[in-house]
Each structure stands twice: as structure tokens, then as C-alpha cells.
Amino acid sequence: MTQPAYPLLFEPIYKEKVWGGRAMLNLGRDLPPGDIGESWELADLATTSASGGGGGVEYSAVANGPWQGQTFHDLLQAYGRTLLGDLPLNEFGQFPLLVKFLDAHADLSVQVHPSAAYAATHPDAFLKSEAWYILDRTPGSCIYKGIVQGTTPQQFREAIKDNTVEELMIKVPVEPGDCHYLPSGTCHALGAGVLAAEVQTPSDTTFRVYDWGRTGRELHIEEALACIDFGPPPEASTPTHLEGPYATIDRLVSCEYFRIDRVQVEAGMHEGLTHEQPRVWMILEGAGTISGDFGETVTLPKGRTVYLPPKLSNATLTADAAMTWLEVSFPQAQPGTLA
After folding, report:
1. Residues 315, 294 contacting (CB under 8 angstroms)
2. What DSSP state is assigned to residue 10?
3. How many angstroms separate the CA atoms of 105 and 320, rounded?
4. Which residues pair with 172 in a beta bridge?
5. Which CATH number fits the domain 240-329, given the four candidates 2.60.120.10, 2.60.120.1680, 3.40.50.1820, 3.40.50.980?
6. Which DSSP symbol is given to 252?
7. Do 234 and 145 meet the contact criterion of CB atoms below 8 Å apart?
8. Is pTM beyond 0.90 here?
9. 81 catalytic, yes or no?
10. CB-CB neighbours of 197 under 10 Å
11. What is the tens place of the pLDDT at every residue in 135-170?
12. Among 137, 208, 262, 304, which one carries the catalytic annotation?
């Protein structure tokens, strides 16, 4: 490879949704017309499911530098270890992460993603564990996360018929800075008025079980009931402070698929980046630049997502203003030598 790896920015893949809105304008986005519910920031999906609103290939395209216009998927095939370090692709040969921004102008459907047991016996269904980081909300906004303990599948089925599902869902008020982990099998819904960053395993298999009276969208009641975890709801994520000499770092999520840290630095910080394994940054506040031996300086404004390959040569971050970002790392990456 003659072109050295460098920080990669991507063209957003916008998804118009019945529940979407225009709140991503607050992230500095130049949105297309319509009610935009999702911005896929980093995607490597060979197939997307009809239940998730897809039905085709979704590969992110690079937006900067010498590889501009090439897909992340093609670059991984050509320069795998250089871009991935010791991070393995998943069993389908995909990058093991899908990153989005979500704008819930209206309530999302009450839904569930396949459990491990269901996915193991249904080749067209894929595990999806996810985390939501709340960026903004209107007063009184909430999420629905899990089912009231003691509810039986039959009671839930009856509630679907009676339009009383909301009474059996656990309603959680949200504030900016909250983070919620939702493992596969958790019945959930993002409530109206919430703008969120989402980190998830690379699947869009979604089984809708209730849609707030909306018509024209398919429900998947039997599939959902086969996947819903009727046990205790997931525990709330409690941030854990990590030591960092130049930053304030809070660990928000740590699961087998990904870790999420919130990183905050002061304006004027100028420090080297020494990542041995890849990282994904979602810039939430402020602005900065990354320079190094890889070519042109990469600008990081609010609302952009950047992929940092491992061992960038002499990479240095300069914070032009106080910055906050979500840093996603990978517990499945094993230390070793880059090929």
C-alpha cells in the first residue's frame, strides 16, 4: 500500500422515516428534504432487512482525502490489517459496528431485535445490541426500555390487541448525557422529542410489535414475542470515570461488542494520538483537527464521525474549541503485530 492510512470521514446515509424530523440541523447538517429519522454514519452491511426499512447494500463512502469516494467496505477488503489492526471482522465479513444519529420527532415503534437463540435458528435474522446516547430532548421526553417485571407473553399479546402496550413498558425519562444499553431481546422504543447517537452491532433486523396506531407499516408480532426477554429489564448505565492526563473520560458502556467512552478536552489541547487499535469518534461539541504524516490535516467539526485506523503516523489532535466526543473501541481486538 503506497497511500498511508489516515483519519476517515464519511458521507452520511440519510433515512427518511415516518417518525423523523429536522433536529439534525442542530448538528450542523445540510439535510435533504423530508422527515429524516436516521443518519447512518459508518455502515458496512452487505444486506439490509425489509423489517428495518432497508433491502439492499449499505456501504459508507469516504468523504475526505485520497480515498474519497471509495467505500469503507472496499477499503477493508484491500487494506484490512492496516485499517483494522487486530480487530476481526464479524462472522459475515463485516465491520463489527454500525453507527447512527437518530431523530425521534415522533415515537418510534415498540420493537425488539432478535435474541441470540432466535438468530441461531433463523439465518435471515441478525443479532442487534445497541446503545443510545441522548444528545437533546424536549421537556418530558422519555424512552421505553424493557417490560414491567412479571408480565407474561400472553398478557403482552392481549395488550397489543387492546392498544395498552404502553402500560406494560418501562418508561424512563431522559436528559442530555444519559446513555442506555439495550442488549438484543430488549423490548424498547425511542420516545418523541429525543435526538440520540446510536452505536450498535451491524444489523437492522427489527421486529415491530406495536406502532402507536399508525397504519401501513408491517407488524411482526409472532417474531417479536419469540425474541422478547420477559425477565428483569437491563440495568441503567452508570458512568465510570477513567484516568486521563489530558482529558476527562467517562466509561458509559462496556459489553462484549463495544465500549463507549465520553471524552472531554479543553480548548487549545495539542496532544499526540497513540491508538494501538482502531477507534470511532462521534464529535458532539466543539471542533478540532488531526494532523500527521498521512497527508492533509483532517478537520473535525461538531456532528461528524471519524474512523481512526491504528498506529497513525505522528498523529496529533488540536482542539480549536472545548470538545466532547464519544469514543468507541473494541474489546474483541487482541494485541498483536499489524500485517
Report:
1. yes
2. B
3. 32
4. 143
5. 2.60.120.10
6. E
7. yes
8. yes
9. no
10. 24
11. 999 999 999 999 999 999 999 999 999 999 999 999
12. 208
